[in-house]
Amino acid sequence: MADLRFYEIWREAVFVDKLLWGVLTSVSLTVLACAVGLAFGLALALARRSVFAVLRLPAAGYVETVRNTPLIVQLFFICFGLPTLLDYRWPFFVSALFALCLNFAAYYAEIIGAGLDNVNKGQLEAGRALGLTKREILGRVSLPQAAAGVYPSLVSQFIFLFLTTGIISEVGVEDLTWAGRYIADRNFRDFEVFLLLAVLYAGLAVFFRAVLTAAGKALFPWWRET
């Protein structure tokens, strides 16, 4: 029978501090990247549906490029490539946040775009018949329905974003995965440490999903009734 020693994690105050700081870092990065990525993703989704090629083509090229390259390559390029090009080095936390925002904006753009494409065309025609402008139709008709329709997919993407943040430990950001590696390198209890990390990630993911699902019901109480 395996000799499990979880107390090897708790008995050192510095280990507990690293875990708590790692949770805070991972959660804060996820929330910030989600907020910025969602706003940028909305802009990309709208640009891809523009009648102007000068907006549509760069947006499409960006989305396809990001979605067809690995996140770790994008992370390393932003952390080590951009400083060479710009002759300026950001803190690794900022570089990691920038990489996550840019990466997930492309995925959010596809999700939001699918929601916009699925809005009932009859309702758009009704808006035009009522004399609404294109901006009013977008804000009052298209976006609310698109947001409600794709909200579960946005939540799933948010959870995926949170679970993906572990990759930023590769550039030295002290997130939850980095904390686990720090502890395991010092107490040599890799199994216990990474089992604990799995439980923490799973627990936080379930918590996020429960909170965001409840928020969705509050934001779109009318959606299930339509």
Plain-language structure description:
The protein is mostly helical and 226 residues long. It has a single domain, classed as MetI-like (MetI-like fold, Orthogonal Bundle), CATH 1.10.3720. It contains 9 helices and no strands. The chain has helices at 7-10, 13-48, 53-67, 71-86, 92-117, 121-129, 134-164, 176-187, 190-219. α2 (13-48) runs antiparallel to α3 (53-67). The longest helix has 36 residues, at 13-48.
Write the layout of secondary structure elements.
Blueprint: H1 7-10, H2 13-48, H3 53-67, H4 71-86, H5 92-117, H6 121-129, H7 134-164, H8 176-187, H9 190-219
Helix pairs in contact: 2-3, 2-5, 2-8, 3-5, 4-5, 5-7, 6-7, 7-9, 8-9
Which descriptors apply to this entry?
226 residues; mainly alpha; MetI-like fold; 9 helices
In angstroms, what is the radius of gyration? 21 Å
- How is the biggest beta sheet arranged? none
Overall geometry comes to flat
Task: Give the % helix.
Answer: over 70%
Which strand-content bin applies to the residues?
under 5%
Calculate the terminal CA-CA distance, rounded to whole Å: 56 Å
CATH superfamily: MetI-like
Helix and strand element order: HHHHHHHHH
Helix/strand-derived category reads mainly alpha
Number of strands: 0
Using the coordinates shown, work out and report the CATH topology. MetI-like fold
Averaged pLDDT: 89
CATH architecture: Orthogonal Bundle
Query: What is the name of the CATH class?
Result: Mainly Alpha
Concise structural overview:
This protein has 226 residues and is mostly helical. It contains 9 helices and no strands.
